[in-house]
Amino acid sequence: MTIVDIRATTVTVPLEAPLRHANGCHWGRFVRTIVEVETDTGLIGLGEMGGGGESAEAVFRAMKGYLVGHDPVRLEEMRFLIANPTASLYNNRTQVLAALEFACLDIIGQAWGVPVCDLLGGRLRDRVPFAAYCFWRYGNPATGEGEVRTIDQLVKEATRLKSRFGFTSHKLKAGVFHPDYELDAYRALAAALPGDSYRFDPNGVFSTEQAIRFGQAIEDLRNDYFEDPVFGLSGMRRTREMVRIPLATNTVVVNFEQLAQNVLNTAVDVILLDTTFWGGIRACVKAAAVCETFQLGVAVHSSGELGIQLATMLHLGAVIPNLSFAADAHYHHLTDDVIEGGLMQYEDGKIRVPTRPGLGVTLNREKVREYAELYKRLGAYPYDQDPGRPGWTPILPNDRWADHRDDRWIRVPY
Ligand SMILES: [Mg+2]
């Protein structure tokens, strides 16, 4: 079996409302590049990549020169072919490799008649638990609905998510407003949902001293973990010495070199594995095995996903024995998906692992066309800019917080 073609299509799919974060905003939609790898046997494997609001089509077109004629089963060779670690100093293609690995695993699973999780050791669970992903949000650009800015709105939204999807763990994506305001908000969230667990993630924008102060102020809550309070292994290590909550990261341990450093001189307790950031599902399974050996916690990170990427997260979540916490997913903020059957459904806060051969998802061509057209109309958006704060440049550690009293309705193209 050999690869004969690689196609890429950029789509943009609306979110319920723009999602604010410490470095900018998702402007009311996700931009994702859908990758199709075709073989001489007629099988087509699916991959997906983000890219900070931009299209990644061009890089996948360039990969045809490397991969046409390549056997999709030879995944380790593909890693060195397009993402050799020293050549990557010039061309970092970790995320590109990930999307192509998803597609090749999809092909292998279809060719051998087994779901991807069976290629990775076999499933340990049929459903993967997810956490609610609570964001500060601007109102929907068309209707103004769905704003989350006040603490009251946050509690209402978290309660709605719990009753609709059954979540028992709740994440607050923070680092947007002043830490004192976000501390009040996080504590209000915990008070409104007693018996559940919580996680707080300011995307690394606190100073170490702020991180320690904040961490100590939430020690009495039922925290899953305190995620990336500060950017850098040294700041995380100093915070960890002073705060009695497990620290988690999806930013400072995202490759094996960093994982080795974290084992030798531990700064983080829980490693949030991202099938894209790590370069594929298999890299995450390997990293989970290292974490199992050294008894570090593991969970599944979300860098924004449509159904193809979600399938990779489900197959990963199905096979790692040490999945210590509910996975994260932006998925419940989406209004639609590009896969057959529409959005995957949550049951009691969990999503079923696909059982069909390969990743177990197929494209709805009509939806792909619709959202590719929408991308052509709206174009890219800068993920690291906030449409409500033109000229704002967040720094590390940050002190340029947004004003929680600012109730403007930001009407971005939608
Ligand atoms: Mg994070």
Question: Could you provide a short overview of the structure?
Answer:
Helix content is 34%, strand content 17%.
Explain what you see:
It is a single chain. With 414 residues, this protein is α/β, with parallel strands linked by helices. The chain has two domains: 3-117 and 365-376, Enolase-like, N-terminal domain (Enolase-like, domain 1); 121-352, Alpha-Beta Barrel (TIM Barrel). The protein contains twelve helices and 15 strands. A seven-stranded parallel beta sheet has the order 7-9-10-11-12-13-14. Strands 1-4-5 form a three-stranded antiparallel beta sheet. The longest helix is centred in the N-terminal third of the chain and has 19 residues, at 94-112. It is globular, with a radius of gyration of 21 Å. The N and C termini lie far apart (42 Å). It binds magnesium ion. Residues 201, 203, 227-228, 250 line the site of magnesium ion.
Keywords:
single chain; alpha/beta; Enolase-like, domain 1; TIM Barrel; 2 domains; 7-stranded parallel sheet; 12 helices; 17% strand
Second-tier CATH architecture of the largest domain: Alpha-Beta Barrel
Give the biggest sheet.
7 strands, parallel
Helix content: 25-40%
What ligands can be seen in this structure? magnesium ion
* Overall tally of domains: 2
Spatially, the strands of the biggest sheet line up as: 7-9-10-11-12-13-14
State mean pLDDT (0 to 100 scale).
Answer: 97
Instruction: Kindly provide the name of the CATH class of the largest domain.
Output: Alpha Beta
The fraction of residues in strands falls at 15-25%
CATH superfamily of the largest domain: Enolase-like C-terminal domain
